[in-house]
Protein 1
Amino acid sequence: MSSRILVLNGPNLNMLGTREPDVYGNETLADIEAKSVARAETLGLSVTFCQTNTEGELVDWVQQARGEADLIIINAGAYTHTSVALLDALKACDIPVIEVHLSNIHQREEFRHHSFVSKAAVGMICGFGGYGYEMALEAAARILNNSSA
Ligand code: CA2
């Protein structure tokens, strides 16, 4: 059976491709999802891709992932820098977590340098735009000991 990867996206990421292309690139979230699904297939992984603008919904999805997913890839958007609730849920879910950001958060405003999500993550990929999601899937395959990685 394929390993199950849950890809969670936080607030405003549904706006990708409409504004700030210099920071976030030209791809829409649907473009990133399509590339992620294709890459996952080559790695023998199955992907569920979700986006919400609501902090509580992200927390709910992390709680529900226990037993339903083998690994979580998360771009929590601005909640990365603010949400202790999300950190608590990620720590409690007992599933490996990989953090992704499109932009290099360390090159940006000071308030984006700190990530609560990082405290629960195996590692973090940032600054590679949508390709970072594919990188995270490759890391996921390796972490889960998938033979095609
Ligand atoms: O670089 C990332 O992936 C971020 O998680 C993106 C978040 C930002 O708050 C984080 O600090 C870093 C924001 C996503 C908002 O994306 C938009 C895209 C187009 C138009 C408006 C917002």
Note: The pocket of CA2 is lined by residues 12-13, 15-16, 18-20, 24, 75, 77-78, 80, 101-103, 105, 112 (CB under 6 Å).
Protein 2
Amino acid sequence: MATIFTKIINGDIPCYKVAETDDFLAFLDINPNAKGHTLCIPKVEIDKVFDLDKESYKNLMEFSRTVAIAIQKSVPCKRVGMTVIGLEVPHAHVHLIPLNSMEDARFISKEKLTSGAFEATAKAISSHINF
Ligand code: 5GP
């Protein structure tokens, strides 16, 4: 069965899109640790990020770097953190999280955002994307 992220890629489930290439998609996490928390995923459905072939892995990291730089320019934060977990969704993804304290990296305290805030955040980040 298709993962929830494949359904997002296919447009069957909506997302707040931040960036897209032929091979990768970035969109806001629906239950963010902090405003601007973004997920970067390969369009190919592979569970574990370290099972990607070397080229795809390198390209996912390069794509994530571009998105992280855009987040840093548009979301006030001390720095952008990168995390790989994957315990919830079995489709490789990189979490990019605007960090102001360790709390933002802990996946425990979550930020509630309105759909308007999600939309504005995605738009702000995407305006700084430069491939
Ligand atoms: P992980 O698999 O790395 O443990 O966590 C998966 C992440 O995906 C979680 O932070 C969760 O909030 C996010 N997530 C799960 N389902 C959806 C969804 O349908 N849309 C979006 N945008 N994010 C999701």
Note: Residues 4, 13, 15, 27-31, 39, 85-89 surround guanosine-5'-monophosphate (CB under 6 Å).
